[in-house]
């Protein structure tokens, strides 16, 4: 089994951090009750820890002819590599088991799409193509 860790864009954590920080600062400026500020801060911390957990625990494993995708305890998928038809680079921002915006899009079956962000995307795609030579590789032209 070969495991590829996801590339991480810590900027994905910056957006919720700035949002929550703005809310907390606004609450302090408005003179909100301390318990409300502490509750909001606790929620903020929990959300940031959860997002960090997902970013750090997203990985892709190739075992024989199966691709396993895992993002913490939230998302798990396995895909028979023989079903993959093409792989290309994408900047798709929609939700995906990808901890970076430097992503690749796997197309499988007729309309299936899986967006991933392996650190070593060129090697990852080469490993897929070795298993399934019919994959159209647009990552390694």
Description of the molecule:
By secondary structure, the chain is of the alpha+beta class. Helix content is 38%, strand content 30%. The chain is built from three helices and eight strands, in the order E-H-H-E-E-E-E-E-E-H-E. It has helices at residues 11-29, 34-56, 121-131; strands spanning 2-5, 58-63, 66-71, 75-80, 84-90, 103-108, 112-116, 136-137. The chain has a four-stranded antiparallel β-sheet. Strand 3 and strand 4 form a beta hairpin. It starts with a strand and ends with a strand. The model has no long low-confidence stretch (mean pLDDT 92).
Number of E-state strands: 8
Output the structural class.
Answer: alpha+beta
Strand order of the largest sheet: 1-2-3-4
Give the integer mean of the pLDDT values: 92
Series of H and E elements: EHHEEEEEEHE
Radius of gyration: 19 Å
Largest sheet: 4 strands, antiparallel
Low-pLDDT stretches are none
DSSP helical segment count: 3
User: In which range does the helix fraction lie?
Assistant: 25-40%
How far apart lie the N and C ends?
A: 26 Å
